[in-house]
Each structure stands twice: as structure tokens, then as C-alpha cells.
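RECORD TYPE: inverse folding
INPUT: C-alpha cells
STRUCTURE:
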């Protein structure tokens, strides 16, 4: 059984144990990255293709006559034509719930950094502000405690509930938004009820037609000027131009995002401007702890072992 991993570098930074995965195949090739023009040649003789974000469209799949299974090294399946795969008899699997702890930890890190003005204090210690202070400490930037604050969560799946659990340990009160476009669930709040009362809004919903630009100027106008927004969902859930404008105008106390509408942002982004105050941006790294990435490998091992036994583990088509 031959297998190829088309974008191994997107998962492994030479810090993962791939031995169990490699041992499943008679021939295993891991490419750091694969350009669109290289895909067909690299998967031509493969029975199993492993991919994170490389696009596998109908034309590519139709030309891969030996391909029987695609392992997606992520949860999202939008880079694979599932309809074409099904019609061609190619099964597809993904990985699930591998990054809950990593993402929840990252969100809390961003939340704490905003509340403690961590970035500003680090800068003050390094650029000489502390050295020129007339007392032992520097308290130029407001520091707030999380206890007693209200956290609003949009998207209460594994990630949202993981953040809620950690927030509870800090003494925060948690409220949950109704699903956009979904059925009403008891105990959850409509956005127009939730937004005015939250001190922190944490986003964990998928990007759909119902959630695109969910947080725009109108939504931000309903929030407290002292509130923070944290986006660990998808860039399109927040209107980035509206968020940048709100931060410049002091309509929000701050924001943090791990995602942008285009990744990497090779064409720039409104949130990358130098004049936006109290904004933290991380490069879609919330999911990427060593432990989370190793779980992806371990899940793919389980999937391929099941494939050999005729079992469908985490198949999505």
C-alpha cells in the first residue's frame, strides 16, 4: 500500500512521532508542501493520500486511478471534492476534536493578555519606560481581573465548551448564544440579548452564510465599549474593516484574533494596519500544540488501521 502526505510541513515541525503511520504502508512519501501543478503526479500511484489543505478537486481525483482513501489531517473538508470522491469510490476521513485543549488554552491566553495589558507591559519593560519610573513598579496600563466578568460564547461545540470550562475556573460567568439560523435551544440567548451584557465575546462557530460578518459594526454597537472580542473561529465571522474601525474609535476596549479572511494574508488585511490599538493577532496557531498535532497523527493511524480491516473510522463520505 503506497501513501503520500502532500503537505507534511503544515502538521509536522520535526517534532512529531510518525513511526506508526509510516509502518502502515509499504511505501510512504511525505512532501513538505505540494504546488497545485504537482498534485496529480505525486498521487498518481498512491492508494492513500494524506492532505491538510492542498486542494483535491474532481479533475485531480479522476486522474488518480489507484486512489482508494483520502485522510484529511484536519476537521475541515472543504479542500476535497467530497461529491466527486464518492462518485469515484474514494472514501474520505477527517480528524476530530484533536485541538480542544490547545485552542481553549490559546483563547484564555489571549483573554488574559488583553485583561492584563501583557503586550504593553512587556514593551514598557524593554523600551526603557520601567527603567525611568520613579517607583519600583509601572502601572501605566489598566489591569483587570477575569473573576466576575461575563463571557459570551458563540459556537458551543467542543471548542466553545472547552473555553467555558476554563473560564469558569477563573470565576467568569458564561452565557451562550443561540446558533445562527438554528433551532432555539433553552438557556441560550439571542445575539441581541447576549451582546449588551458580555465583557468578553469568544467566537467558535463555523463560517456559514448565517455567520459570515456576524460581528459587524451593528453588532459591535450593541456591546459595551469596555468589552473584548476574541476570534478563534474563522476570519469571515468578523467584519475585519468594522472591527478595525471600532478599535480606532474606542468602541471596543480591545480584540484578539487567531484567524483572518485570507491565510496567509499575502494581500494584506485591514487588521494588520499599524494604527489599530489594543489588537493581538496570532497566525492561526491556536490549534497547533505538539500534543494536538500528535493526536492528528494518532487518529490517522486509527483510520488507516480500520481501513485495512474494512472499518470506516471518521469517514465523512
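DESIGNED SEQUENCE:
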Amino acid at each position: 500500500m503506497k501513501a503520500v502526505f502532500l503537505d507534511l510541513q503544515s502538521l509536522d515541525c520535526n517534532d512529531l512521532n510518525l513511526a506508526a503511520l509510516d509502518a502502515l504502508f509499504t511505501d510512504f512519501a511525505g512532501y513538505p508542501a505540494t504546488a497545485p501543478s504537482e498534485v496529480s503526479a505525486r498521487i498518481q500511484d498512491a492508494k492513500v493520500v494524506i492532505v491538510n489543505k492542498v486542494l483535491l478537486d474532481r479533475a485531480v481525483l479522476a486522474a488518480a486511478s489507484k486512489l482508494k482513501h483520502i485522510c484529511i489531517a484536519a476537521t475541515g473538508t472543504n479542500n476535497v471534492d467530497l461529491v466527486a470522491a464518492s462518485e469515484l469510490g474514494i472514501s474520505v476521513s477527517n480528524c476530530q476534536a484533536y485541538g480542544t485543549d490547545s485552542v481553549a488554552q490559546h483563547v484564555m491566553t489571549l483573554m488574559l493578555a488583553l485583561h492584563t495589558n501583557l503586550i504593553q507591559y512587556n514593551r514598557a519593560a524593554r523600551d526603557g519606560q520601567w527603567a525611568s519610573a520613579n517607583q519600583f513598579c509601572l502601572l501605566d496600563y489598566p489591569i483587570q481581573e477575569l473573576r466576575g466578568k461575563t463571557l459570551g460564547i458563540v459556537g458551543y461545540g467542543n471548542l466553545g465548551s472547552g473555553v467555558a470550562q476554563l473560564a469558569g475556573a477563573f470565576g467568569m460567568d458564561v452565557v451562550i448564544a443561540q446558533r445562527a439560523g438554528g433551532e432555539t435551544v433553552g438557556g441560550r440567548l439571542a445575539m441581541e440579548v447576549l451582546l449588551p451584557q458580555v465583557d468578553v465575546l469568544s467566537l467558535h462557530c463555523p463560517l456559514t452564510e448565517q455567520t459570515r460578518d456576524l460581528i459587524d459594526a451593528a453588532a459591535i454597537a450593541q456591546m459595551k465599549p469596555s468589552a473584548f472580542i476574541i476570534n478563534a473561529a474563522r476570519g469571515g465571522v468578523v467584519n475585519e474593516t468594522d472591527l478595525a474601525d471600532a478599535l480606532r474609535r474606542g468602541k471596543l476596549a480591545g480584540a484578539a484574533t487567531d484567524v483572518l479572511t485570507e491565510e496567509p494574508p499575502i494581500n494584506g488585511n485591514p487588521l494588520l494596519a499599524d494604527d489599530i490599538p489594543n489588537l493581538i493577532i496570532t497566525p492561526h496557531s491556536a490549534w497547533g500544540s505538539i500534543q494536538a498535532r500528535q493526536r492528528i497523527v494518532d487518529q490517522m493511524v486509527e483510520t488507516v488501521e480500520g481501513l485495512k480491516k474494512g472499518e470506516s473510522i471518521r469517514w465523512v463520505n
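NOTES: The mean pLDDT is 97.
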